[in-house]
Amino acid sequence: MSRERWLVPPGVRAALADRHPDDIAPFARRKEAREVMAADLERLRDLQERLYVDGRYAVLLVLQGMDTAGKDGMIRHLSSAIDLAGAEVTSFKTPHSAELRQDFLWRIHQRAPARGRIGIFNRSHYEDVIVVRVKNLAPPPVWERRYEHINAFERLLVDSDTVVIKCFLYISKEEQRERLEARRTTPEKLWKLTPSDITERRFWDDYMAAYEDALTRCSTEHAPWFVIPANNKWFRNYAITRLMVEALEGLDLKLPEPTVDPESVVIE
Ligand code: AMP
Ligand code: MG
Q1: How far apart are CA 239 and CA 234, in angstroms?
Q2: Is 196 touching ligand 1 by the criterion CB < 6 Å?
Protein backbone atom coordinates (compact mmCIF):
# COMPACT_ATOMS: atom_id res chain seq x y z
CA MET A 1 0.00 0.00 0.00
CA SER A 2 1.24 3.50 -0.79
CA ARG A 3 0.84 4.69 2.79
CA GLU A 4 3.70 2.41 3.80
CA ARG A 5 5.84 3.81 0.99
CA TRP A 6 5.57 7.34 2.37
CA LEU A 7 5.63 6.46 6.05
CA VAL A 8 8.70 7.14 8.18
CA PRO A 9 8.59 4.02 10.35
CA PRO A 10 8.96 4.99 14.01
CA GLY A 11 12.49 4.38 15.25
CA VAL A 12 13.93 4.23 11.73
CA ARG A 13 16.11 6.94 10.18
CA ALA A 14 14.11 9.01 7.64
CA ALA A 15 17.03 8.86 5.10
CA LEU A 16 15.76 11.51 2.67
CA ALA A 17 18.56 10.80 0.22
CA ASP A 18 17.11 7.32 -0.33
CA ARG A 19 13.66 8.69 -1.14
CA HIS A 20 12.53 10.11 -4.46
CA PRO A 21 10.71 13.43 -4.88
CA ASP A 22 9.80 12.27 -8.42
CA ASP A 23 8.14 9.04 -7.30
CA ILE A 24 4.63 8.53 -8.68
CA ALA A 25 4.12 4.86 -7.79
CA PRO A 26 1.67 3.09 -8.01
CA PHE A 27 1.08 5.06 -11.23
CA ALA A 28 3.13 5.31 -14.39
CA ARG A 29 1.47 8.51 -15.59
CA ARG A 30 -0.89 11.18 -14.38
CA LYS A 31 -3.97 10.09 -16.21
CA GLU A 32 -4.03 6.78 -14.37
CA ALA A 33 -4.69 8.71 -11.17
CA ARG A 34 -7.57 10.79 -12.48
CA GLU A 35 -10.44 8.54 -11.43
CA VAL A 36 -9.19 7.69 -7.97
CA MET A 37 -8.43 11.37 -7.32
CA ALA A 38 -11.94 12.45 -8.22
CA ALA A 39 -13.40 9.64 -6.12
CA ASP A 40 -11.20 10.54 -3.14
CA LEU A 41 -12.30 14.18 -3.18
CA GLU A 42 -15.92 13.04 -3.25
CA ARG A 43 -15.23 10.61 -0.40
CA LEU A 44 -13.44 13.28 1.64
CA ARG A 45 -16.44 15.58 1.30
CA ASP A 46 -18.73 12.89 2.68
CA LEU A 47 -16.32 11.87 5.44
CA GLN A 48 -15.90 15.43 6.65
CA GLU A 49 -19.64 15.73 7.06
CA ARG A 50 -19.64 12.55 9.12
CA LEU A 51 -16.69 13.79 11.16
CA TYR A 52 -18.66 16.91 11.94
CA VAL A 53 -21.94 15.28 12.93
CA ASP A 54 -20.22 12.40 14.74
CA GLY A 55 -18.40 15.01 16.81
CA ARG A 56 -16.04 12.66 18.61
CA TYR A 57 -12.80 13.24 16.72
CA ALA A 58 -10.72 16.05 15.31
CA VAL A 59 -8.27 15.77 12.41
CA LEU A 60 -5.05 17.75 12.19
CA LEU A 61 -3.07 17.85 8.94
CA VAL A 62 0.43 19.27 9.35
CA LEU A 63 2.11 20.48 6.14
CA GLN A 64 5.82 21.15 6.14
CA GLY A 65 8.24 21.68 3.28
CA MET A 66 10.78 24.00 1.75
CA ASP A 67 9.69 27.23 0.02
CA THR A 68 7.75 26.38 -3.17
CA ALA A 69 7.17 22.78 -1.98
CA GLY A 70 3.46 23.29 -2.54
CA LYS A 71 1.89 23.78 0.87
CA ASP A 72 -0.47 26.46 -0.42
CA GLY A 73 -1.30 24.47 -3.54
CA MET A 74 -2.14 21.46 -1.40
CA ILE A 75 -4.52 23.50 0.71
CA ARG A 76 -6.16 24.84 -2.46
CA HIS A 77 -6.67 21.27 -3.67
CA LEU A 78 -8.27 20.16 -0.39
CA SER A 79 -10.48 23.24 -0.32
CA SER A 80 -12.39 21.89 -3.32
CA ALA A 81 -13.68 19.10 -1.05
CA ILE A 82 -13.52 20.44 2.46
CA ASP A 83 -16.39 22.53 3.80
CA LEU A 84 -14.96 25.72 5.31
CA ALA A 85 -17.64 25.71 7.99
CA GLY A 86 -16.00 22.70 9.59
CA ALA A 87 -12.34 23.46 9.00
CA GLU A 88 -9.65 26.03 9.54
CA VAL A 89 -6.29 26.69 8.01
CA THR A 90 -3.53 28.26 10.08
CA SER A 91 -0.35 29.59 8.47
CA PHE A 92 2.42 29.93 11.02
CA LYS A 93 4.80 32.81 10.36
CA THR A 94 7.80 34.12 12.25
CA PRO A 95 6.56 34.38 15.85
CA HIS A 96 5.86 37.95 16.92
CA SER A 97 7.16 39.34 20.18
CA ALA A 98 4.18 38.37 22.36
CA GLU A 99 4.40 34.80 21.04
CA LEU A 100 8.12 34.69 21.75
CA ARG A 101 7.43 35.45 25.40
CA GLN A 102 5.44 32.19 25.65
CA ASP A 103 6.61 28.61 25.20
CA PHE A 104 6.90 27.57 21.55
CA LEU A 105 3.81 25.36 21.63
CA TRP A 106 1.52 28.01 23.07
CA ARG A 107 0.45 29.52 19.76
CA ILE A 108 0.22 26.07 18.18
CA HIS A 109 -2.06 24.54 20.79
CA GLN A 110 -4.55 27.39 20.43
CA ARG A 111 -5.04 26.47 16.78
CA ALA A 112 -5.54 22.73 17.36
CA PRO A 113 -8.88 21.67 15.84
CA ALA A 114 -11.89 21.04 18.08
CA ARG A 115 -13.76 17.73 17.92
CA GLY A 116 -15.72 17.44 14.71
CA ARG A 117 -13.36 19.73 12.83
CA ILE A 118 -10.39 19.55 10.46
CA GLY A 119 -7.37 21.76 11.15
CA ILE A 120 -4.70 22.32 8.54
CA PHE A 121 -1.34 23.74 9.57
CA ASN A 122 0.67 25.50 6.88
CA ARG A 123 4.00 25.22 8.74
CA SER A 124 3.80 24.31 12.39
CA HIS A 125 5.68 23.69 15.62
CA TYR A 126 8.24 21.86 13.46
CA GLU A 127 9.63 25.24 12.38
CA ASP A 128 10.92 25.45 15.94
CA VAL A 129 13.32 22.58 15.26
CA ILE A 130 13.90 23.39 11.57
CA VAL A 131 14.36 27.07 10.75
CA VAL A 132 15.26 27.82 14.36
CA ARG A 133 18.03 25.23 14.21
CA VAL A 134 19.31 26.07 10.73
CA LYS A 135 19.36 29.83 11.34
CA ASN A 136 20.53 29.62 14.96
CA LEU A 137 17.47 31.45 16.25
CA ALA A 138 17.83 29.64 19.58
CA PRO A 139 20.84 27.88 21.12
CA PRO A 140 21.13 24.09 20.66
CA PRO A 141 20.15 23.19 24.24
CA VAL A 142 16.85 24.96 23.66
CA TRP A 143 15.84 23.34 20.37
CA GLU A 144 17.34 19.95 21.34
CA ARG A 145 14.71 19.54 24.05
CA ARG A 146 11.89 20.40 21.70
CA TYR A 147 11.72 17.00 19.98
CA GLU A 148 10.55 15.51 23.26
CA HIS A 149 8.18 18.38 23.90
CA ILE A 150 6.70 17.87 20.44
CA ASN A 151 6.22 14.14 20.96
CA ALA A 152 4.52 14.72 24.30
CA PHE A 153 2.32 17.48 22.86
CA GLU A 154 1.21 15.32 19.94
CA ARG A 155 0.54 12.46 22.38
CA LEU A 156 -1.77 14.81 24.26
CA LEU A 157 -3.63 15.71 21.06
CA VAL A 158 -4.00 12.06 20.08
CA ASP A 159 -5.14 11.08 23.60
CA SER A 160 -7.74 13.82 23.21
CA ASP A 161 -9.16 12.17 20.06
CA THR A 162 -7.29 14.15 17.42
CA VAL A 163 -5.93 12.24 14.45
CA VAL A 164 -2.59 13.78 13.53
CA ILE A 165 -1.30 13.43 9.95
CA LYS A 166 2.10 14.97 9.29
CA CYS A 167 3.32 15.40 5.72
CA PHE A 168 6.71 16.59 4.54
CA LEU A 169 6.30 17.81 0.96
CA TYR A 170 9.54 16.58 -0.51
CA ILE A 171 10.82 18.43 -3.57
CA SER A 172 14.31 18.28 -5.05
CA LYS A 173 16.66 21.25 -5.05
CA GLU A 174 16.45 21.32 -8.84
CA GLU A 175 12.64 21.42 -8.74
CA GLN A 176 12.82 24.34 -6.32
CA ARG A 177 15.17 26.13 -8.70
CA GLU A 178 12.65 25.74 -11.52
CA ARG A 179 9.76 26.94 -9.37
CA LEU A 180 11.68 29.97 -8.12
CA GLU A 181 12.80 30.70 -11.67
CA ALA A 182 9.16 30.59 -12.78
CA ARG A 183 8.31 33.11 -10.06
CA ARG A 184 11.19 35.34 -11.16
CA THR A 185 10.26 35.35 -14.83
CA THR A 186 6.45 35.40 -14.68
CA PRO A 187 5.03 38.86 -13.87
CA GLU A 188 1.91 37.39 -12.20
CA LYS A 189 4.08 35.20 -9.98
CA LEU A 190 6.81 37.69 -9.13
CA TRP A 191 5.07 38.86 -5.94
CA LYS A 192 5.52 35.36 -4.55
CA LEU A 193 9.30 35.58 -4.79
CA THR A 194 10.81 36.89 -1.55
CA PRO A 195 14.43 37.70 -0.73
CA SER A 196 14.38 34.90 1.86
CA ASP A 197 13.42 32.35 -0.82
CA ILE A 198 16.76 33.11 -2.44
CA THR A 199 18.89 33.17 0.70
CA GLU A 200 17.34 30.13 2.41
CA ARG A 201 18.09 28.00 -0.64
CA ARG A 202 21.78 28.37 0.17
CA PHE A 203 21.13 26.41 3.35
CA TRP A 204 19.42 23.53 1.51
CA ASP A 205 21.67 20.82 2.93
CA ASP A 206 21.31 22.16 6.46
CA TYR A 207 17.53 22.19 6.03
CA MET A 208 17.56 18.61 4.78
CA ALA A 209 19.63 17.54 7.80
CA ALA A 210 17.26 19.35 10.17
CA TYR A 211 14.23 17.81 8.45
CA GLU A 212 15.77 14.37 8.56
CA ASP A 213 16.31 14.63 12.32
CA ALA A 214 12.83 15.98 12.97
CA LEU A 215 11.18 13.29 10.84
CA THR A 216 13.25 10.60 12.50
CA ARG A 217 12.81 11.74 16.08
CA CYS A 218 9.15 12.71 15.84
CA SER A 219 7.65 9.94 13.72
CA THR A 220 5.73 7.99 16.34
CA GLU A 221 3.07 5.29 16.32
CA HIS A 222 0.52 7.86 17.44
CA ALA A 223 1.58 10.66 15.09
CA PRO A 224 3.62 9.31 12.17
CA TRP A 225 5.46 11.37 9.58
CA PHE A 226 4.99 10.82 5.86
CA VAL A 227 7.47 11.92 3.20
CA ILE A 228 5.33 12.88 0.22
CA PRO A 229 7.07 12.94 -3.18
CA ALA A 230 6.11 16.45 -4.30
CA ASN A 231 7.97 17.25 -7.52
CA ASN A 232 4.69 16.44 -9.28
CA LYS A 233 1.88 18.59 -7.94
CA TRP A 234 -0.85 16.17 -8.97
CA PHE A 235 0.88 13.33 -7.16
CA ARG A 236 1.31 15.36 -3.99
CA ASN A 237 -2.43 16.16 -4.17
CA TYR A 238 -3.27 12.52 -4.72
CA ALA A 239 -1.09 11.23 -1.89
CA ILE A 240 -2.20 13.61 0.84
CA THR A 241 -5.87 13.37 -0.08
CA ARG A 242 -5.47 9.57 0.09
CA LEU A 243 -3.96 9.81 3.59
CA MET A 244 -6.83 12.04 4.73
CA VAL A 245 -9.43 9.64 3.35
CA GLU A 246 -7.73 6.63 4.92
CA ALA A 247 -7.45 8.34 8.29
CA LEU A 248 -11.12 9.36 8.29
CA GLU A 249 -12.25 5.93 7.11
CA GLY A 250 -10.37 4.42 10.04
CA LEU A 251 -12.58 6.28 12.51
CA ASP A 252 -15.87 4.45 11.95
CA LEU A 253 -17.76 7.73 11.87
CA LYS A 254 -21.44 7.49 12.58
CA LEU A 255 -24.43 9.53 11.58
CA PRO A 256 -26.57 10.48 14.60
CA GLU A 257 -29.50 8.31 15.67
CA PRO A 258 -32.66 9.53 13.92
CA THR A 259 -35.04 11.51 16.14
CA VAL A 260 -38.10 10.79 14.04
CA ASP A 261 -39.57 7.59 12.63
CA PRO A 262 -39.74 8.38 8.90
CA GLU A 263 -42.77 6.07 8.47
CA SER A 264 -44.85 7.74 11.16
CA VAL A 265 -44.40 11.36 10.16
CA VAL A 266 -46.04 13.17 7.30
CA ILE A 267 -44.40 16.24 5.84
CA GLU A 268 -47.35 18.51 5.07
P1 AMP B 1 5.72 31.65 4.25
O2 AMP B 1 5.33 30.25 4.61
O3 AMP B 1 6.39 31.73 2.93
O4 AMP B 1 4.58 32.60 4.39
O5 AMP B 1 6.82 32.12 5.29
C6 AMP B 1 6.63 32.05 6.66
C7 AMP B 1 7.97 32.26 7.31
O8 AMP B 1 7.82 32.17 8.72
C9 AMP B 1 9.01 31.23 6.90
O10 AMP B 1 10.20 31.86 6.54
C11 AMP B 1 9.19 30.42 8.18
O12 AMP B 1 10.48 29.88 8.29
C13 AMP B 1 8.89 31.45 9.25
N14 AMP B 1 8.52 30.81 10.50
C15 AMP B 1 7.43 30.05 10.75
N16 AMP B 1 7.45 29.58 12.01
C17 AMP B 1 8.60 30.04 12.57
C18 AMP B 1 9.20 29.88 13.86
N19 AMP B 1 8.61 29.16 14.81
N20 AMP B 1 10.37 30.51 14.07
C21 AMP B 1 10.95 31.24 13.11
N22 AMP B 1 10.45 31.43 11.88
C23 AMP B 1 9.28 30.82 11.61
MG1 MG C 1 7.63 31.79 1.34
Answers
A1: 9
A2: yes
Nearest CA to ligand 1 atom 17: 94
Q: Put the strands of the sheet holding 87-91 in their side by side order.
A: 7-8, 225-229, 162-170, 58-65, 118-122, 87-91
Q: How close is the Cα of 181 to the center of ligand 2, in Å? A: 14
DSSP state of 46: H
Cβ of 200 less than 6 Å from ligand 1: no
pLDDT digits (tens, 9 = 90+) for 98-144: 999 999 999 999 999 999 999 999 999 999 999 999 999 999 999 99
Distances (CA, A) of 98 to 139, 146, 239: 20, 20, 37
Q: What rounded mean pLDDT belongs to the chain? A: 97
* Index of the ligand 1 atom closest to the CA of residue 128: 19
Residue to mutate, 93, 125, 201, ligand 1, most ligand atoms under 8 Å from C-beta: 93
Pick the closest to residue 164 from 90, 104, 76, 225 (CA basis): 225
CA 116 to chain centre: 18
- Alpha-carbon span 81 to 228, nearest angstrom: 20
Task: Note whether 198 and 177 are within 8 A (CB).
Answer: no
